[in-house]
Design a protein that fits this description.
heterodimer; A: alpha+beta; Butyryl-Coa Dehydrogenase, subunit A, domain 1; Butyryl-CoA Dehydrogenase, subunit A, domain 2; four-stranded mixed beta sheet; four-stranded antiparallel beta sheet; B: alpha/beta; Rossmann fold; two-stranded antiparallel ribbon; 7 helices; 11 strands
Amino acid sequence: MDYFLDEQQKTIKALARRIAEERILPVRAELDEKEEFPWDIVKELAAADMFRVFVPEEYDGLNGGCLELCLVVEELSRVCSGVAVTYAASALGCMTLMEYGTDEQKQKYLPDIASGRKLSAFAITEPTAGSDAANIKTTAEKVEGGYLLNGTKQFITNGGEAEIYTVIALTDKTKGARGASAIIVEKDTPGFTFGKKEKKLGIRTSATRELVFKNCLVPEENLLGKPGLGFIQAMRLFDRSRPGIGAQGVGLAQGALEAATDYARERVQFKQPLITMPVIQNMLADMAIQVEAARALVYAAARHVDSGARNVTEESAMAKVFASDAAMKVTVDAVQICGGSGYMRDYPVEKMMRDAKILQIYEGTNQILRNAIAVNLRKRKARTA
Amino acid sequence: MNIVVCLKQVPGTTEVKIDPRTNTLIRQGIENIINPFDTYAIEEGVRIKEKDGGKVTVITMGPSQAEAALREAISLGADEAVLLSDRAFAGADTWATAFTLSCAVKKLDKYDLIICGRQTIDGDTGQVGPELAEMLDIPFVAYVSQVEEVKDGCLRVRRMIEEGHEVIETTLPAVITVAKEINVPRLPSLRGIMKSKSAAVQTWGISELGADESTVGLSGSSTQVIKIFFPRRVHQAEMLEGPLEKQVDTLIDRLKNAGLC
């Protein structure tokens, strides 16, 4: 289907696909098996200017928006969702900086993120604050010379590997979520260490780790925007990043559809290739419909975000929910079509199925996001009633 | 350091069809790529530039669409590009091609090192590199697998030979042809691609080169392709089947019958 991408968007998508096929495909099974962070691939992505895509021109970026980011994420996910999330998490880690940071703060950090010399990461989740994100406990006490951080962040993508962290912490714990602020913390700051590295079901090449703050002093100028706005900034950030998770789902589902189609063409049972059997044809057709519908919604939501619309909560939640559910369904069916072989690690589809599950969980579980969509429906109805 | 890389645009497939009337490749509907061996030449040129400074100029001879190959080379790090394109250049054999390239190289301000791929995947002759060196009357090293040092007008390289390698030192300027063992060509960058789209590509024809028409293209070629054909299949393989012992017996019978044992 023609999505009317412009020349630059087509170029970005085509190059991301080339990197995925030529550099990631040969090592994806090994990356998954060894659970090793894909530094070599990160370097390839950096050399190809992929980290510049989401950064403004004045900070050495290429000025892309949500759609451009989605195109890269989709193509990387088509081959390896673990690499894709590593890339996307670096965008997530600096989006609050890009939106609320001063020129000085941006000058200090963005060029290194754009060149790929440094990765970034975003940290809000805590042991007590998953879906209930407002229930964070990490504090950033105002002291002489800056903020003193104490607490533990959990399940942080790029944790331990990134150099630049945007951390949501309470600068005023008496106010709860309204006392939260976004603060930049650099890797080697004294008092900032890394806890357990998680062993995961899928996206195993990506790093997911605890961040531990013990009397970690961060200079005052690392505060992003005004104190007390951290929670709102984080919610706004996720509204804009969720199409990216949708794009991960689109790419993953696309990869699974292609793998299942290839298998169905080659596999002969009852003296005929699977693909000539109506039951398989119907499954493949349903998969293709899911993939294309997900892609259409994700691109539309990304364009809505890029249009500068004030409220994008519903649209981006819809794109994330639909595309991640599609990815789960399509990858499960891909394993089913590939049968016993599909269940084996010699074939790529079992990895895709494992990788898909997280998409329904992170950046807002699909249940929480359906709640958000429903709340908006109710509010609108209440206004017009 | 002024580095010149000569490259050729070739069909991106091995399933080429031959026009039975003209004995030339049918290029219609086939995607063209940079000759894969030449991508190693571009990469090596760019690496030397990144290490020692200077610039990389890419040159190709071909129809106007060969400009795409030059733009791709720019996206990979080349700085300047020259397309040698003229009706008079058509039908050139390796000699006339090398001559035309040599005219272009001489027209450049300055050149220190000329790098070519070891051969093309369509013609497969591997002749243009050495012929070019001969026409420029400068040293030549083939099958280079490593550039060890470029210093003070000298070049030290490692070249592949059948049972190992040779280390050769030569003065510059020189021509080398490179083997695929020399490096892993990079992928283009987004900035590189954007730069390549707007970069200027010079086109030189016969008048710019100041060459005589009788020395280029078909008329400057001392060889001409008379016929291209698929060799008649004279060998046939037969797969023996059945239990191993029976296969061995059959094989011995066949060899005896053929008078081979």
